[in-house]
C-alpha cells in the first residue's frame, strides 16, 4: 500500500496509563476511579481489574524497543494523575520518575514523546469530593499539569490536556458504563463543563510556563468525533435525531473550544439539566484558549434514528449486565439502527469513508481549525492467536490500511492532517470490557506478558517505511532540481 502524505507526516501509536501500566499500588500510586470502579461487582467484564494490566510499568524499555522496531516517529502516552499526585494531595516524585525514564527511553530511540494529561484516571479521593461535578477539580487539574510540566517540560514539547472528554463525562456520569459509573445527566453535563474549564486553565498555564522557560510547546486536546448519519435522510424525525447526536457528541465539545460558546440548540436540548447555570463569567473565554492542534479519535460512524428499534433488531453489545442509561441527556429516545455494514468485535460499524468525510467537514465548518492529528484509530477483533511466534489478524490489518487510505484522501480533499496514531500499541485493559477485547497491534499474553507483533503491526511498519522512503526521495529530487537550476 502506497499513499502520498505530506513531508514530515508523523506516524505513531497510542496507549493509556490505566490500560497498560499495572503496578496499581506501586511506586506511591493510589487508586484512580478505574481501580475503585473495577472492584465493584458487575462493573467490568469477568471481574477484571487494571491491577496488573500488561505490566508496562516494569517492561517499559521492551515496549519502547518494539516501537523503534516498527519505525514509529511518535508515541502518544498518558501520565496517570493517580500516580503523579496520588489522592490528589502531594506530588509523588517516584511516580514522575517513571515518566521521566520513559521520556528518556523514547528520545534515545528517536521517538517523539506525545503526552496526554488525562486519559480517565482521576484520583479516587477527588471523586469522593464530587469528581468532575465539582468545579474545584478543574483547579486541581492545573496543579497536576504544572507538576508534570515541571518534571518533563524540558524534554516533552507536545501536550494534550484531555483524551475523549465525552467518555469521561457523558459515559462515565450519565451512561453508567465507565468510571465512576453514575447515571445522572445533570452530573454528566457538570463534568462536561468542568473538564472544558480544566482544559482552558491548563492550556493557558502550560503556555505561560513554556514561555517563561523559553521552550517550544505544542498544546491541544483530543476529541472522539463521529458522523451522525440520519437513517432516513428524508425523514424529519431521523434528521432531528442526527442533529441532536451531532450536537451532544461533536459540537458541544468543538464549539466551546474553537468558537468560545456552546451551541444554542444544544443548550436548549439540555435545558432541564443545568448546563447553562454552570457557566460563570469568563469561563468561555478561558475554555477557548488557543490550541496548536486538535487530536481526532475516530473508530466508527453513528447511524441514528428518532424511531424506536423494531423488536426484531439485535440488542446492542454490552460488556456487563450492569444497569445503565443513555449517555445523551435530553435525547435518550434516539436509536442507532444497523446499516448492515461489517462490524468489529466491539460491534462498531466499519466504514473508512466516514473518516474522510469527518476530516473534510471539520475544515469546512471551522475556519479557525488548527492542524489535525488522528490520535486514535484502530479495531478490536476476536481470534488473535499466537501460532509459531506470529499472529495473523487480517481484519485489523485491513481496517488500519483502509483508514490510512481515508486519511490520504482527506488530505487530498484539503484536510490539514499531519499525523496518524494507531490504537493501540498493545493489547490491554479495555475499560468495562476488561481483557475481553484486543485492540493491540502487538499481542500480549495476559499470563506471561510476552509480546508478539501481529501481522497488522508488520503491515503498519511497512506503511511507515514506504512513507519515509517517499520523503527521502522527494528531498533528493528537490536537491537535484536545485542543483540543476544553479548549474544552469
List keywords for this structure.
single chain, 488 residues, alpha/beta, 8-stranded parallel barrel, two-stranded parallel sheet, 14 strands
Plain-language structure description:
With 488 residues, this protein is an alpha/beta fold. 43% of the residues lie in helices and 13% in strands. The protein is built from 16 helices and 14 strands. It has an eight-stranded parallel beta barrel with strand order 1-2-3-4-5-7-9-12, surrounded by six helices. Helix 3 (56-70) packs parallel to helix 5, helix 7 (136-152) runs parallel beside helix 9 (185-212) and helix 8 packs antiparallel against helix 9 (185-212). The longest helix is centred in the last third of the chain and has 33 residues, at 455-487. It is globular.
Write the layout of secondary structure elements.
Layout: E1 10-14, H1 17-20, H2 33-38, H3 56-70, E2 74-78, H4 81-84, H5 93-108, E3 112-118, H6 124-127, H7 136-152, E4 158-163, H8 165-175, H9 185-212, E5 218-224, E6 228-230, H10 236-259, H11 264-269, H12 275-278, H13 283-287, E7 293-297, E8 302-304, H14 353-365, E9 372-376, E10 386-387, E11 390-391, H15 394-412, E12 417-423, E13 442-444, E14 451-453, H16 455-487
Parallel strand pairs: 1-2, 1-12, 2-3, 3-4, 4-5, 5-7, 6-8, 7-9, 9-12
Antiparallel strand pairs: 10-11, 13-14
